[in-house]
Amino acid sequence: MEAIGAILDRGSLLAATIAALAAGFALSSASFVRFSFYMPLLVLAVIYVPGLLLVAGVVTRSAIAFSRDYAPLLACVAMAWSASQVPIIAAAWTGPPLLVAVIAVLAYLYFGALVFFAVRTIFGTDNRTAAAIVLLSWIPLVAAALVWTPLRFIFQLVASPFFLFFII
After folding, report:
1. Is the pLDDT higher at 27 or at 108?
2. How many domains does the chain have?
């Protein structure tokens, strides 16, 4: 996919972060959402992308360099997540809850397709391997959901403006 290559060549992690924060802010203004605007980006950066790297290492049976692959993968995944949230945000502002649910399912399938292309481009894998990595990428999210209460406390602490004050 040409757009993933463009993100890798000319995009930046800063632009992806700003896009994800803007999408999170727009999504958090919907009445059914009960999380802070920065939480989706934090989950992507701390749970999903490292989990995706671990799954990629297991599936490809090769060493994945976190220092080399983390930032480009996070930029692509954050952009993919931001793009997939646009229809959900539009439906949440204008449509009934059932329509929002249907659009959300389709949007997250679209997110999976975009992550497929990002994985295939960044890791240089074939289609079958990239599909296996994306299909197994939900495992870290389920593991995080099982320990969500302590993780939420840690995320809120890290996102606090006084975090550095507490450390010092």
Report:
1. 108
2. 1
